[in-house]
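Weekly structure sync, notes
Attendees: PL (lead), two postdocs, one rotation student
Agenda item 3: pending single-chain targets
PL asked that the sequence for the first pending target be pasted directly into the notes so everyone works from the same version. It is reproduced below exactly as submitted, 238 residues in total.
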Amino acid sequence: MHSLIPFVIHKKSRIAMPTKLLKNFDQETFLRDYWQKKPLLIKGGLAGWQNPITADELAGLALEDHVESRLIHARPIANSITESQWILEQGPFSEQRLSTLDDKNWTLLVQAVDHYAPEVAELLSYFGFIPSWQIDDVMVSYATKGGGVGPHFDRYDVFLVQGQGQREWQIGQNCNQDTPLQAGQPLSLLTEFNRVDSYQLSAGDILYVPPYASHWGTSLDNDCMTYSVGFRSPSKAE
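Predicted structure, written out during the meeting:
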């Protein structure tokens, strides 16, 4: 059994951090050629970065009423997106529930962890080349082998930072508001996913994914933590 032992941390204010620089990354090239256009793997962009929160601390946040959290269980069927199943549980969770999870195919997701853990908020200092008013939050996921949330797209820009363990990310077709989604699933999953590229991320690697670019992440081990740094897209008025 692979379980979590929740460790409660108390809410702390998100504080401003001075801008830091990513490795193996040119801001000017990124903003010109990739931002809101196409995905980019930043290999070793945070090489040497220390994972700032433990799995048990993340589980502790998932106990709190005021924190948004989810458990997603994957039931994959080989070579079939529509026959695979994903089971969604909404938090808050009990300690008993988190300590009795199966040993594979599940993911715990906690929203806005940067609002509660200054060490996680510090991650934002590496993305100072994006206007701060576009920051949404930092969602943190912990997954066992095979865990993931299925093929989907987001309506915002996201930097997927690998904190520990390994995860495979498949990049698929570009989508839009009218792209068909699966019926009968608790998540907004694509009916079709046409893989264009794939990347295996290890600790310190970053994958940028623009809005509406489909992607599908799967944990390759039992100790996978990913930090999703989300930036909302400006409205036409903005």
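Discussion points:
- DSSP finds four helices and eleven strands in the chain.
- Helices lie at 27-33, 55-61, 95-98, 118-121.
Action: rotation student to compare against the earlier draft before next sync.
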